[in-house]
Design goal:
Blueprint lengths: L6 H10 L15 E6 L3 H12 L5 E4 L38 H9 L1 H6 L5 H14 L4 E2 L2 E10 L4 E9 L2 E12 L7 E3 L3 H4 L6 E3 L13 E5 L3 H12 L4 E5 L17 H5 L6 H14 L5 H8 L4 E4 L4 E7 L2 E6 L4 E4 L1 E4 L3 E3 L17 H4 L9 H4 L24 E3 L5 H4 L6 H22 L1 H8 L25
Parallel strand pairs: 1-2, 1-6, 2-3, 6-17, 8-15, 9-10, 9-15, 10-11
Antiparallel strand pairs: 4-5, 5-6, 7-16, 12-13, 13-14
């Protein structure tokens, strides 16, 4: 019997059985039990996990015009291969038949899977498209979250969500919000001040769409030493740039992936139970060691003779001059470039997000929760939200903003709290089930009276005494 490429996936769903019916009681005036912001890998995985938990009326929105623009894998991601090991559990969250390996082997064979060291980016994008389509995850595209307006009451909390749908304003309501909105979801792209005065046509951040074909024959500068900077430099070189200069603050490239020290089940599963001081020190160790680019990302640029690396070098000034960027470095050198790319990461500041700005001052941050020794102070880490174990916001002042517990943060702003890059594959196995359990608990307890009535409601018997009457032992009457 010939098997289809999706045989294992279909068999997995058959063995799981049908998804439970929605057990969450409808509430007047509530459109969604859960609104998921972001239709990429995280949003799709949450939608499936919530379905399997019997939680209905879940909506996924994405600002992209269509599926091709959702997430990062076909837009802003420029690596050839994913940076994580191929065997990590991803959106399948414990269902191997829905995982990347099953999908890949069904199409290219088990031997081919054994031969790849890490997952090719384009094939990961293809897998995610299949995952979304096979599981029939509905995503509302061209829908952007503009503002979350809390509607706090004495009994419960919910939100009025101000959306922009195909350019038109719309208001909907939800009881829970899950932010699966990527690396800038609690802040924004960090652009060094030295680049801020340059014309927009001369500079871009790696988070933006960049027309690399237009850089053919051009001189390009890249600022930053992490993987995204090297991937941008490589893409420019492969597009035919005349030369690419990459400027790094560190004297040597970060090459020690310190996060591997905690990549074992004991630390991973129990990370939220670590003392704040330990979690802070782990985040600080990672930041001081630096984000390491994979060796293949470095080799991707060093094979070009027109690639030039400038360690321990920063830009002191930059201005537009005769249609080019005139840059001067801290080492006293001057350069002329046609274009500059900032591969300088992201900043965390919830107040910088319009959808959060109305209540950002109530969000408990790490600097509100923990005061490190003076030598370990770090303003950037202190700006991260201090999240609960369900990745929910917590109040800075108890009782002032109880609705915050109903917003779950599944993006990199959770790094200091969670110890992993939240939103990336390493976070999925632990954090998606954890968040779904918390959502389930909160929705259940939020309707406790209705569930008590359901739990104590009369249950009809499956049968009556006639079903066994003929087999009842008849005792003989005793003699006088």
């Amino acid at each position: 019997m010939t098997q289809t490429p999706d045989h294992d996936a279909r068999r997995t769903l058959e063995l799981l059985g049908p998804a439970p019916e929605n057990w969450v009681p409808d509430r007047p005036g509530i459109d969604h039990n859960v609104l998921i912001v972001g239709g990429g890998q995280s949003g799709s995985a949450f939608a499936f996990a919530l379905r399997r938990a019997g939680i209905g009326r879940v909506s996924v929105i994405d600002a992209a015009a269509d599926a091709s623009g959702a997430g990062v894998w076909r837009t802003r991601a420029r690596m050839n291969k994913l940076r994580t090991p191929k065997a990590l559990v991803g959106p399948e969250t414990g269902l191997p038949g829905l995982g990347f390996q099953a999908w890949y082997e069904a199409r290219f064979g088990a031997q081919s899977y054994r031969e790849i060291d890490r997952i090719p980016r384009e094939q990961w994008a293809d897998y995610l498209a299949w995952y979304r389509e096979f599981l029939e995850i509905p995503i509302r595209y061209a829908t952007r979250l503009v503002r979350i307006e809390p509607l706090d009451s004495a009994l419960d909390t919910s939100f009025r969500l101000h959306l922009e749908v195909n350019g038109e304003a719309r208001v909907e309501t939800a009881r829970k919000v899950v932010l699966c909105n990527g690396v800038a979801g609690n802040g924004g792209a960090f652009v060094p001040q030295v680049l801020a005065s340059l014309p927009a046509a001369r500079v871009a951040h790696t988070s933006q769409a960049i027309d690399f074909a237009a850089l053919h024959g051009k001189s390009v500068a890249v600022l930053g030493g992490a993987a995204s900077a090297f991937d941008a430099a490589a893409t420019a070189l492969e597009a035919g740039a005349a030369n690419v200069h990459l400027f790094v603050r560190r004297a040597t490239l970060a090459a020690v992936p310190v996060s591997r020290a905690r990549a074992y089940p004991g630390a991973y599963d129990n990370y939220f139970d670590l003392p704040d001081a330990v979690r802070w020190s782990q985040a600080l160790r990672f930041k001081r060691s630096g984000s390491t680019a994979p060796l293949d990302s470095i080799e991707r640029v060093t094979r070009f003779a027109n690639f030039h690396l400038h360690p321990a070098t920063q830009w002191e000034s930059a201005r537009e001059e005769a249609g080019q960027i005139a840059a001067r470095t801290t080492e006293g050198e001057t350069f002329q470039f046609d274009f500059a790319i900032a591969g300088t990461g992201y900043f965390i500041d919830p107040s910088a997000r319009p959808e959060l700005a109305g209540f950002a001052s109530h969000i408990r941050l790490w600097r509100d929760q923990y005061t490190p020794p003076a030598d370990d102070a770090d303003d950037g880490l202190g700006a991260h939200p201090y999240l609960g174990s369900g990745l929910e916001y917590l109040e800075k002042t108890p009782g002032r903003a109880p609705y915050l517990r109903d917003i779950h943060v599944y993006n990199p702003a959770g790094f200091v709290s969670a110890g992993v890059p939240v939103g990336d594959v390493p976070s999925m196995k632990r954090d998606i089930p954890s968040v779904v359990r918390r959502i389930s608990r909160d929705l259940f307890l939020g309707d406790l009276a209705a569930h008590e009535a359901r739990l104590t409601a009369p249950v009809p018997a499956d049968f009556d005494e006639s079903a066994y009457a003929s087999s009842v032992w008849q005792r003989e009457a005793s003699s006088a």
